[in-house]
Amino acid sequence: MKMTGDLNLVKKINKSIVLELLQKQSPISRASLAKLTGLTKATVSTLVAELMEENLLYEIGTGESSGGRKPVMLVFRQDAGYAIGVDLGVNYIHAVLTDLKGEIIHEVRRGLKGGASQETVLRELKGCLRTLIAAAPESPYGIVGIGVGVPGITDHQGSVLFAPNLGWRNVPLQRLLEEEFRMPVTIDNEANAGAVGEREFGAGRGVSNLIYISIGIGIGTGIILKNELYRGTSGYSGEMGHISIQADGKPCRCGNIGCWELYASENALLEEASSLLPEDRKELEELVKLAEAGSPEATALFERAGYYLGVGITNIINIFNPELIIIGNRFAHAERFLGAAVRRVIDTRSLPYHREKLRLEFAGLGSRSCVAGASSFAVSRFFADRRISVDYSV
Ligand SMILES: [Zn+2]
Hints:
By secondary structure, the chain is of the alpha/beta class. It is built from 13 helices and 16 strands. Zinc ion binds at residues 242, 252, 254, 256, 259.
């Protein structure tokens, strides 16, 4: 980069910014791109020409005109490549192949036996990835990358440092997958991926401050503040499943006592439901069926889980003053049985100023929040890799 004395006179122009706008708002004209990015029309034209050369956009007819000559519209070529998004659950693997706009082309779900070894999980994961790679249509860029959401703490090198419910410690997942598949791999916490998925494509579209709560075997949260994922100093933010809601409660695998996820997760709910469900079908889906059939015991258990969920969510509301709380992952489909209890607690226990503008919703993408976000991590990385810097003086 050329330095021209006063840094204020230097602007970095990223082709990726133009690309992202095209991805979200195409068809769009060169003039609108210039207006939205603040770049000159000449600069936009140069970047557009490069992107056309690279097969990432094409021109179509003409758009609306405010008088004079009708502008040519630019369309993002969403099938120029594909991305893979994976939700690596504790008892399942869910993976999708999407185009560059996040539309799902193919989907794979596999169940995992609880307590499966790391070797087994990795073998199943690689199997899912191979299936999706084989399902990708021909395209100029092929598969641009893989994003994986994992239920645990990850670092910047894409290693899973600690995933207590999976029983993993220090697994260099990114390196293992990049060596095997020879393409960029992004690893992140599954709740972070879910938050981004909902923000981009689901209930959180257009919302600046939101907290996504992923409830499965455990509880994780993804925090979006001022339109950006908040990762904390080392990338470890959002472990709210391990805030204590019972100061002298049950011991947790994390070392703390009375953690939220011991009272409000799928695991906690199924533990309580133990006597209601047959030995070989201790699953959330079975409990939902019972509640749907009108079982008062099942309904009461959902209300109890909803109560504890509300207690934790109240803390989150009071800390972050968010505009939106999204309940996602395995509990996304249980709104009918959880919603009222959660709202009752929030309405009576959160600070009144904080709940004034607050909305609570269940995931708009249902069980697909994490895969959508994971795939968008892969696409964003592909865009970022096309980044160029142009310096010019104002
Ligand atoms: Zn804990």
